[in-house]
Design a protein that fits this description.
- By secondary structure, the chain is α/β, with parallel strands linked by helices.
- It has 3 domains: 81 residues, Udp-n-acetylmuramoylalanyl-d-glutamate--2,6- Diaminopimelate Ligase, Chain: A, domain 1; 210 residues, UDP-N-acetylmuramoyl-L-alanine:D-glutamate ligase (3-Layer(aba) Sandwich); 143 residues, Protein-Tyrosine Phosphatase, Chain A (Alpha-Beta Complex), CATH 3.90.190.20.
- The chain is 31% helix and 24% strand.
- The protein contains 16 helices and 23 strands.
- A 9-stranded mixed sheet has the order 9-10-8-11-12-13-14-15-16, with helices on both faces. It has a 7-stranded mixed sheet with strand order 21-20-19-22-18-17-23, with helices on both faces.
- Strand 12, helix 8 and strand 13 form a beta-alpha-beta unit.
- Helix 4 crosses helix 9, helix 4 packs across helix 10 and helix 9 packs antiparallel against helix 10.
- The longest helix is centred in the middle third of the chain and has 16 residues.
- The radius of gyration is 23 Å and the shape is globular.
- 51% of the residues are buried.
């Protein structure tokens, strides 16, 4: 069965159709478009209308446009709407309305994508599961994810992000989740908020989209827990708390054992062990919250525990790789996709705790959007206990230059203005036996460093569980 027939798409959007067509997918990028997709001509850095002819030539089943683009045949298969983004949102709402899936929406300052991937991995073993690709969590990512949702889906996991006040609730209302999870609240996007309590209030607005009888799964260990508690009470939303302070989903201990994180927890009165194939206490906390979501949608907790043990982070989100170099190897911790003070602390803790016969080396890039305290938040990293266990720290970007200055001389590596400048020095800085962390905000482009490290040898990713 097609994802969208022409008649369904017209009914959803109120647009005008050319041709008689159906589509099997939805795409916004000609580079990843599959034959039979509906190409959505969004306006971003470039106007998607400029690529409609190319998309149709590549096999797109139709295109969602606000005007007939240049270079397109008069009888080309099109769905013409007043505004393309509004049309995409309408498709998303219609896809959500026609599907009986149990929907979980995930937000939080840190851990959204990893938790979404955990849930997708767990639920895919219990029924047909649809989940957001990568970090499609913004004003176009959420409706795109919804528009792609198969009508036969039994579970769906939607990631919701924000940069400014007022972004979360409208996306949550589109998703209409049965369960809304907030992983944590931290000092992220402080340029747009007065304080962390303001961020907590914005995150709490995800509860405005909950279906009647829905459940909010909340982190009880954060300082701003009372902000979440009040928001839930004001909305009359049932809550399920997780963390060391929770009774029903209680984290009791976390330890690193070899190449896995082992956590002991109490889940609904039952003592359990969580085995996670990646290192970090933050993964254990997110996993506990994921189990609370699993319980809230009445999925099988025993199967969930087995599935969780098979999950590992995706590329750029703490994925661990072994890079063969001659007769030896280096271990790469790829956390290059994003960074803020909370996730940076977690990543450095993981690096410090990971067993190695060689050195522990970090490449740290600027953390962006931190507001007036941005310099202090970078400098304060020098005082972390984990720094004592790290042998050398290289810094990238003007903000990380402030950290570089205050690092102990024995640990102070090289400061670089850009990631590109690092590449020429990598072979002299890394040797067999080392474990290497790359962590920074996306715009600093530490992925260039990660890719260059992979090219030093032959990468062997342990897992890529994107679903």
């Amino acid at each position: 069965m097609s994802l969208w027939t022409m008649q369904e798409a017209v009914a959803a959007t109120g647009g005008q159709a050319q041709g008689d067509w159906s589509v099997d997918g939805v795409s916004i990028d000609t580079r990843t478009l599959q034959p039979g997709d509906l190409f959505v001509a969004l306006k971003a850095a470039r106007d998607g209308h400029d690529f409609v002819a190319q998309a149709l030539a590549s096999g797109a089943g139709a295109a969602l446009v606000s005007q007939i683009p240049d270079g397109v045949e008069a009888d080309a298969p099109l769905l013409i709407v007043d505004d393309v983004l509004t049309g995409l949102e309408a498709l998303g709402r219609a896809a959500r309305a026609r599907c009986d899936a149990k929907v979980i929406a995930v937000t939080g300052s840190v851990g959204k994508t990893s938790t979404k991937e955990m849930l997708a991995r767990i639920l895919s073993d219990q029924g047909r599961t649809h989940a957001a690709v990568a970090s499609y969590n913004n004003h176009w990512g959420v409706p795109l994810t919804l528009a792609r949702m198969p009508r036969e889906a039994q579970y769906a996991v939607i990631e919701i992000g924000m940069n400014h006040p007022g972004e979360t609730a409208p996306l949550a209302v589109q998703a209409r989740p049965h369960v809304a999870m907030i992983t944590t609240v931290a000092a992220v996007h402080l340029e747009a908020f007065e304080d962390v309590a303001g961020i907590a209030g914005e995150k709490a607005s995800i509860m405005q989209g909950l279906e009647r009888g829905g459940v909010a799964v909340l982190n009880g260990d954060i300082v701003e827990a009372d902000v979440l508690r009040k928001a839930a009470a004001d909305l009359g939303v049932a809550t399920q708390w997780f963390g060391a302070s929770s009774e029903d989903f209680k984290l009791k201990s976390v330890q690193i054992q070899g190449e896995e994180t082992l956590a002991h927890a109490t889940v609904l009165g039952r003592d359990i062990e969580l085995h996670i194939q990646s290192l970090g206490a933050h993964f254990a906390m997110n996993a506990l919250g994921a189990l609370a979501c699993i319980s809230a949608v009445d999925a099988d907790l025993n199967k969930a525990l087995s599935s969780l043990a098979l999950w590992s982070p995706v590329k750029g989100r703490g994925a661990r790789e072994e890079i063969q170099i001659g007769a030896g190897k280096i271990t790469l911790l790829d956390d290059s996709y994003n960074a803020n003070p909370t996730s940076m602390v977690a990543a450095l803790d993981v690096l410090a705790a990971t067993p190695t016969k060689g050195r522990r080396i970090a490449y740290l890039g600027d953390m962006k959007e931190l507001g007036p305290d941005e310099v202090a938040l970078h400098v304060n990293l020098a005082h972390l206990e984990s720094i004592t266990s790290i042998d050398q720290i290289h810094c990238i970007g003007p903000l990380m230059k402030q950290l570089h200055v205050v690092l102990p001389e024995s640990k102070r590596g090289t400061w670089y203005g850009t990631s590109e400048e690092v590449l020429a020095d990598l072979t002299d800085q890394i040797q067999s036996g080392d474990i290497v962390l790359a962590k920074g905000s996306l715009s600093v482009a530490l992925a260039k460093i990660v890719d260059a490290i992979r090219k030093l040898g032959h990468g062997d990713p342990k897992s890529d569980t994107s679903k």
